[in-house]
């Protein structure tokens, strides 16, 4: 049964139909039984994916303008469907994600509407704050973004150093965003001091043309003198709101900034030992730590 469920998870890559019982696991790092007890059912078509409607226009455009590329993506799904039930294809699946997200990360500015070469100086008068304390700068930063439809943060320099170093060695990870029906997965890809997110269904259907739907910009200009790194974000509001973007940003600090090696080990597995990585471990960690948001 467990093997069959793992196989279904790999096939149904846009979303995992996992019930959220609100019960925390008794053993840290282990998903509670209620999270794993969902039934195996017929492999859904792409159109049956609950999140398909959000991306239907882009998928239809790819199908119309680049039919060969679209068919190639769909054929990869068919290949997985032809595998015997219970045979896990996680390693091959994660390899595909890495290949496509690497191409995504090399695109400097993501999708249309996002800023290019966004610098700290374009937001903050750096010279004017040189004499201010880190706390004062943080207050200015938070006040500036308080009325804007986005998210921001002040990250301690040491924590960002840890996150940045880990991002260089493990640039890609799979994040689970709680929704009314289970979880929608997003691929996060580090590109220098930027972290680009796109939905897994985008990677699945559009590949290297998948647009960035959320970008976290990290500004280390004040790290040496003030001990802080400023973060601001841009998002595609057609697909994400501030609450959901904050949930993803919180997960970055959870998985990349943690002092608990067993938590970051999930990121290492995803990047270096994909055959050992389990989707449910990410969900279990979110349930354990309580990082979530009000479901849509």
Would you mind describing this structure in some detail?
45% of the residues lie in helices and 15% in strands. Strands 1, 2, 3, 4, 5, 6 and 7 form a 7-stranded antiparallel beta sheet that branches. The chain starts with a helix and ends in a 7-residue tail after the last helix.
Lay out the secondary structure.
Elements: H1 2-11, E1 15-16, H2 33-36, H3 52-65, H4 67-81, H5 90-105, H6 134-145, E2 152-156, H7 157-169, E3 172-178, E4 183-191, E5 194-199, H8 200-206, E6 214-219, H9 223-226, E7 228-235, H10 242-256, H11 261-272, H12 279-289
Antiparallel strand pairs: 1-4, 2-7, 3-4, 4-5, 5-6, 6-7
Helix pairs in contact: 3-4, 3-8
- Number of domain modules: 2
Low-confidence stretches: 1-44, 83-88, 107-112
Biggest β-sheet strands, sense, barrel: 7 strands, antiparallel
Tally the beta strands.
Answer: 7
Question: Which structural category fits the helices and strands?
Answer: alpha+beta
Q: What is the CA-based Rg, rounded?
A: 20 Å
Distance between the termini: 31 Å
Q: Which percent band covers the strand fraction?
A: 5-15%
Q: Write the element-wise H/E pattern from the N-terminal end onward.
A: HEHHHHHEHEEEHEHEHHH
Global geometry: globular
Average of per-residue pLDDT values: 74
Helix content: 40-55%
Instruction: Give the number of helices.
Output: 12
Organism: Acipenser ruthenus
Pfam family, one: ATP11
Protein name: ATP synthase mitochondrial F1 complex assembly factor 1
Family: Belongs to the ATP11 family.
């Amino acid at each position: 049964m467990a093997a069959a469920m793992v196989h279904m998870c790999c096939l149904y890559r846009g979303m995992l139909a996992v019930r959220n019982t609100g019960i925390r696991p008794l053993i840290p790092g282990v998903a509670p039984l209620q999270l794993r007890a969902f039934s195996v059912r017929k492999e859904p078509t792409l159109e049956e994916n609950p999140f398909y409607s959000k991306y239907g226009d882009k998928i239809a455009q790819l199908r119309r303008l680049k039919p060969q590329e679209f068919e190639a993506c769909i054929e990869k799904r068919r290949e997985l469907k032809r595998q015997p039930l219970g045979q896990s294809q996680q390693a091959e699946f994660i390899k595909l994600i890495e290949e496509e997200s690497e191409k995504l990360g090399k695109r400097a500015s993501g999708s249309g509407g996002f800023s290019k070469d966004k610098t700290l100086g374009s937001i903050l008068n750096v010279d004017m704050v040189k004499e201010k304390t880190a706390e004062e700068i943080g207050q200015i930063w938070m006040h500036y973004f308080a009325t804007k439809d986005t998210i921001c943060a002040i990250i301690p320099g040491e924590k960002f150093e840890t996150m940045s170093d880990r991002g260089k060695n493990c640039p890609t990870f799979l994040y689970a965003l709680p929704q009314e029906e289970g979880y929608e997965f997003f691929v996060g890809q580090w590109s220098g001091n930027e972290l680009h997110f796109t939905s897994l269904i985008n990677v699945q259907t559009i590949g290297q043309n998948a647009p960035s739907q959320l970008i976290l910009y990290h500004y280390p200009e004040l790290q040496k003198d003030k001990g802080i790194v400023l973060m601001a974000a841009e998002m595609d509001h057609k697909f994400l709101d501030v609450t959901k973007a904050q949930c993803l940003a919180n997960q970055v600090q959870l998985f990349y900034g943690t002092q608990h090696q067993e938590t970051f080990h999930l990121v290492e597995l995803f990047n270096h030992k994909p055959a050992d990585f389990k989707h449910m471990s990410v969900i279990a960690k979110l349930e354990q730590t309580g990082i979530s948001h009000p479901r849509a």
